[in-house]
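Table S2 (text version). Query chain:
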Amino acid sequence: MKVNAAVLRAQGSPLMIESLDLDPPAAGEVLVEVKTAGVCHSDLHPALGDWPVPTPMVLGHEGAGVVRAVGPGVTSVALGDAVVFCWAPPCGLCPPCRSGHPVLCDRLDRTAYRHRLPSGTARLHNGDERVAAFLGTACFADFAVVAEAGAVRVPAGVPFDVLATLGCAVVTGVGAVMNAAHVSPGSIVVVLGVGGVGLNVVQGAALAGAEQIIAVDRREAPLVLARAFGATDVSLAPAILVDAVRELTGGRCADYVFNTVGSPSTVADAVAAARKGGTIVVTGLARIDGVASLATFPFVMQEKRLIGSVYGSGQPSQDIPKLAGLYQEGKLKLRELVTRSYPLREINDALAALERADGARGVISW
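Corresponding structure-token output:
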């Protein structure tokens, strides 16, 4: 079938809207009509050239749609089901999967991170020219073929503009709080960077019962949003992060610091802002060659913990439907995450707004 897609022909150049060929789903695969797709920094980084990727490629990994066809052997979804994309479909058999850590699935190194389906290929092409599918998802297109585990069924009736960010920003941010850090009630939380993921860390901390949630960002607009998501305090680009946190916490510093920025220069700041015995969780990814330095003596003597957290450190196949349920119960903000909406032809405008840090999420809608 023919699909319209946003194609990255060369890193550092604008995406091009092209008509491509999409092969039907094979065994264990699902064809999804894309309804909405979030625009995430993980799409921006390959577009800018921060992360090396093969080209041509269709970007997009955060989105939702409707199942329109299934390949042989598919049992977890059926025609007409509403689904959210999971860009890290696990094999279920390797040691990480068997130990309850499917986001660390060994197969992902050979599939999603090489922009292939578990079958070893992608279904997109332009005649004889093969086109890579970013993370095996490629949802900057009106249809996508993904692995069965890459299409997670969600409750019917939740609007697609609400579901758009559920499969990455929401599960990553809320999951970092619940699964990686295990934030305890009454604690003090600092969130460094309150874009799409950071806002979900804020509301995840609120759900966990944190007493004080301090949002830190370089721009005013995200901080205004952060208050609406549960931040008790905000700090606009402090010269020295630890000093600002000490002032806001009566000298104690934070029980938990979440770094959603990920740039090397911010890692040491995040560590310094944690109290003795505190936990620092890094969810942000910057350039692939970024290297952070850390003063090891105080880190060891104060028994701090530094944790990396990918994709919410949980089980997306279970976490995504649970988060949709929390939205239906009025406990989770999802619609408020989307502050800009674009048609596919304006994908470059959406990426530019993301690079400017205009706040929250932009979404491509069909």
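Notes on Table S2: The chain has two domains: 2-165+334-365, 169-311. DSSP finds eleven helices and 19 strands in the chain.
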